[in-house]
């Protein structure tokens, strides 16, 4: 069996570390190169019992690699992408830098695996809310097209990287010790609180995170007219995002029919009465519950879902894309 040479760009971050863990769990035939900033040079991590040392990511770091899994922010991703391409590696990116580029496939393997094969060296992983939300509702959309989604998200602090996760842990400690709480990674205190803003606000009053769900879903589902009204909220949960969704369908649908579809769907588990973030953390399924009709509108269904946004919402989805290409 061929061994693939894989670089992780941003190997020391929340997503990069999860990539190591998921590839080890899956026992993929890979040889890894760990890349991060100058700050991390020499840090050591174990993969399959072997010690790997982090190198500084530079313009020449990608020579000889088959794949690069991107786990850095937009600016770094845009900077390194041309060098990855030049080195001949396929770049699977977790940032939002290339998601809406018409030449870049945007892929959730359970939803649109066929898009993965038509690429020009870059494939984008969707936003974590898009991945979790669409994994849950694409099986419904295939049978009964969704025309409009009204969603509210409850997003874990690790969605903001290591800095976000550390901030909640530090504020928990400060609260317990009666120390002053000084927000740094988030705009407001996150412990014993929630923050209804993720990303910057546009002229219509939506944040960048909220617009991603509509724009990315339109591309993935080939549904340019899909309308999404989303409110994204940061909550004091460590890992796993939750989403409440009201789906306006093309025709009326019974709750039992929805449940039957989701019971058979790839990557989904029907969990009644409902999942919580702790039920989905450290595993890859998107769990769905609280399915009922919307009493305020016809042809409308309400559901609740949770998914681990570091795994299925980022690392696992990217690795599934790589596996499709390996096969
Ligand atoms: N966290 C999530 O749940 C999640 C979900 C979906 C998508 N994403 C996306 O995934 C990407 C990574 O997010 P994260 O949460 O893992 O962030 P993170 O924990 O803050 O990690 C950032 C990574 O980027 C590296 N980095 C920073 N500057 C660099 C440079 N100049 N050269 C090379 N590497 C550099 C860091 O290395 P050092 O340690 O050396 O600084 C670190 O490995 C982001 O685009 C994010 O939007 C995150």
Structural overview:
By secondary structure, the protein is α/β, with parallel strands linked by helices. Helices cover 31% and strands 24% of the residues. The chain is built from eight helices and 14 strands. It has helices spanning 14-26, 74-86, 128-143, 161-176, 208-220, 255-264, 277-280, 311-326; strands at 4-9, 30-36, 44-47, 50-53, 55-56, 67-70, 90-93, 122-124, 146-155, 227-234, 241-249, 268-270, 286-293, 300-307. The chain has a six-stranded parallel beta sheet, with helices on both faces. A six-stranded mixed beta sheet has the order 10-9-11-14-13-12. The protein has a two-stranded antiparallel sheet with strand order 3-4. A hairpin with a 2-residue loop joins strand 3 (44-47) and strand 4. NADP nicotinamide-adenine-dinucleotide phosphate (NAP) is lined by residues 10-16, 36-37, 39-40, 57, 71-73, 76, 94-95, 128, 158-159, 161-163, 309-310, 313-314.
Share of residues in strands = 15-25%
Q: Give the overall shape.
A: globular
Q: Could you spell the SSE succession in H and E letters?
A: EHEEEEEHEEHEHHEEHEHEEH
CATH superfamily of the largest domain: Dihydrodipicolinate Reductase, domain 2
* Oligomer category: single chain
What structural class do helix, strand and pairing data support? alpha/beta
Q: How are strands sequenced across the largest beta sheet?
A: 5-2-1-6-7-8
Which architecture of the largest domain would the CATH scheme give at its second level? 2-Layer Sandwich
Summed up, the helix count is 8
The helical percent reads: 25-40%
Mean pLDDT: 98
CATH topology of the largest domain: Dihydrodipicolinate Reductase, domain 2
What is the CATH domain class of the largest domain?
Alpha Beta
Radius of gyration: 20 Å
Low-confidence stretches: none
Number of strands: 14
Number of domains: 2
- The first-to-last residue Cα distance is 11 Å
Largest sheet: 6 strands, parallel
Bound molecules: NADP nicotinamide-adenine-dinucleotide phosphate
């Amino acid at each position: 069996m061929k061994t693939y040479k894989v670089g992780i760009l941003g190997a020391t971050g929340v997503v990069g570390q999860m990539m190591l863990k998921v590839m080890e769990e899956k026992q993929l035939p890979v040889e890894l190169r760990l890349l991060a900033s100058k700050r991390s040079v020499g840090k050591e991590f174990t993969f399959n019992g072997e010690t790997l040392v982090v190198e500084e990511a530079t313009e020449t770091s990608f020579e000889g690699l088959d794949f690069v899994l991107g786990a850095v922010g937009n600016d770094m991703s845009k900077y390194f992408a041309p060098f990855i391409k030049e080195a001949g590696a396929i770049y699977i990116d977790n940032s939002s830098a290339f998601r809406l580029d018409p030449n870049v496939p945007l892929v959730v393997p359970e939803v649109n695996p066929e898009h993965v094969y038509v690429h020009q060296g870059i494939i984008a992983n969707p936003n974590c809310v898009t991945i979790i939300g669409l994994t849950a509702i694409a099986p419904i959309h295939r049978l009964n097209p969704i025309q409009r989604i009204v969603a509210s998200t409850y997003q874990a602090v690790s969605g903001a990287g290591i800095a976000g996760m550390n901030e909640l842990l530090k504020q928990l400690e400060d609260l317990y010790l009666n120390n002053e709480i000084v927000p740094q990674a988030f705009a407001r205190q996150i412990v014993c609180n929630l923050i209804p803003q993720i990303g910057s606000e546009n002229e219509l009053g939506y944040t960048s995170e909220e617009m991603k769900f509509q724009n990315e879903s339109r591309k993935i589902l080939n549904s340019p007219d899909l309308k999404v009204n989303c409110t994204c909220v940061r909550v004091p949960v460590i890992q796993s995002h939750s989403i409440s969704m009201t789906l306006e369908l093309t025709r009326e649908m019974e709750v039992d029919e929805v449940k039957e579809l989701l019971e058979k769907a790839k990557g989904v588990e029907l969990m009644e009465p409902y999942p919580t973030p702790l039920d989905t953390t450290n595993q890859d399924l998107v769990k769905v519950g609280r399915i009922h009709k919307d009493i305020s509108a016809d042809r409308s269904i309400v559901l609740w879902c949770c998914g681990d946004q570091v795994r299925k919402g980022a690392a696992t989805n990217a690795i599934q894309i790589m596996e499709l290409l390996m096969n």
